[in-house]
């Protein structure tokens, strides 16, 4: 009985810890909504406001007056969705090649891909801008989508997952049946690696949605601004309406939460796949 009681006490501590971590993680998002639904003065008052107010719609109306909120949200959705789909396809295809195909220079090429992860993206800012300008892609979605169509992390992630989840025997059996490499990849490998695709897709969508520096450099026209650039224009020179900005920021965060909720189960399965194998 004593051992049973100790186990219950340990489980209680674990759940208590998880509840605390969850509340701490959710609080910034909740605070963003609290400030966005009150006046800016609520930030400076003591004690600060901790209960949502009734000014959220008013603050959002200010956002709609200052920027084309729906338009920039659609721009971000198009860019983030296109980048995510391309990264999932090309990264999984490259991961399959590096993991299951044998060709000359495979390991050296994979090491080169991994080495690119060590280079800060800021170092490629000027060369990439010169190339995009030469191609005439300034102020177009291609300037943001094409350079991000495949990622080194995505290739590494898919290569590791495919190597551990897809047995060689299954691929050899498909080859005996006359399947081509792409047919094997499309019909056999992709259904198996759905958890890894969901995990990579969430990370890619979130990083692309929150990207600020590169879109700021290549997207000058307001008609092609992303949501992050548009929110930056809400700052005034002499004063800042934090309630208006955080109301817009709160609404700009909602698509990321929706994507996470849709792929939640697959995301968790992808992260815990290695821990559940014997």
Summarize this, please?
With 278 residues, this protein is mostly helical.
Which H/E pattern describes the elements?
HHHHHHHHHHHHHHH
| Global Rg | 23 Å
Secondary structure: helix percent? over 70%
- Quaternary state reads single chain
Specify the number of helices. Answer: 15
Major sheet, described briefly? none
End-to-end gap: 31 Å
Overall structural class, as computed from helix and strand content, comes to mainly alpha
Tally of individual domains: 2
CATH class descriptor name of the largest domain: Mainly Alpha
Q: How confident overall, as mean pLDDT?
A: 86
CATH-level-2 architecture of the largest domain: Orthogonal Bundle
Structural description of this entry:
The chain is an all-alpha fold and 278 residues long. The chain has two domains: 1-54; 68-272, MetI-like (MetI-like fold, Orthogonal Bundle). Helix content is 72%, strand content 0%. The protein has 15 helices and no strands. It has helices at 2-36, 41-44, 56-66, 69-100, 106-115, 125-135, 142-145, 152-165, 168-176, 181-192, 194-210, 213-218, 227-232, 242-262, 264-272. Helix 11 (194-210) crosses helix 15 (264-272). The radius of gyration is 23 Å and the shape is globular. 29% of the residues are buried. The model is unreliable at 274-278 (pLDDT under 50).
Describe the secondary structure blueprint for this structure.
Elements: H1 2-36, H2 41-44, H3 56-66, H4 69-100, H5 106-115, H6 125-135, H7 142-145, H8 152-165, H9 168-176, H10 181-192, H11 194-210, H12 213-218, H13 227-232, H14 242-262, H15 264-272
């Amino acid at each position: 009985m004593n051992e049973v009681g100790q186990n219950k006490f340990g489980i209680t501590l674990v759940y208590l810890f998880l509840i605390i971590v969850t509340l701490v993680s959710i609080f910034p998002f909740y605070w963003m909504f609290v400030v966005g639904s009150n006046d800016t003065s609520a930030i400076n008052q003591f004690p600060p406001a901790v209960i949502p107010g009734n000014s959220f719609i008013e603050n959002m109306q200010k956002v709609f007056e200052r920027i084309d909120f729906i338009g920039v949200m659609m721009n971000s959705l198009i860019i983030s969705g296109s980048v995510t789909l391309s990264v999932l396809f090309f990264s999984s295809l490259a991961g399959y090649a590096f993991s299951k195909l044998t060709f000359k220079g495979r390991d050296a090429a994979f090491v080169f891909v991994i080495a690119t992860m060590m280079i800060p993206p800021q170092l490629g800012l000027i060369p990439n801008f010169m190339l995009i300008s030469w191609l005439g892609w300034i102020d177009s979605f291609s300037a943001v989508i094409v350079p991000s169509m495949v990622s080194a992390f995505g290739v590494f992630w898919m290569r590791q997952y495919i190597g551990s989840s897809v047995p060689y025997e299954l691929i050899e059996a498909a080859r005996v049946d006359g399947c081509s490499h792409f047919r094997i990849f499309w019909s056999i490998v992709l259904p198996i690696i759905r958890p890894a695709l969901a995990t990579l897709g969430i990370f890619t969508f979130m990083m692309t949605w929150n990207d600020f520096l590169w879109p700021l450099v290549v997207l000058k026209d307001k008609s092609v601004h992303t949501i992050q650039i548009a929110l930056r224009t809400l700052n005034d020179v002499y004063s800042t309406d934090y309630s208006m900005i955080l109301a817009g920021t709160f609404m700009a965060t909602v698509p990321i939460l929706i994507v996470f909720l849709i792929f939640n189960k697959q995301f968790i399965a992808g992260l815990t796949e290695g821990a559940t194998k014997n």
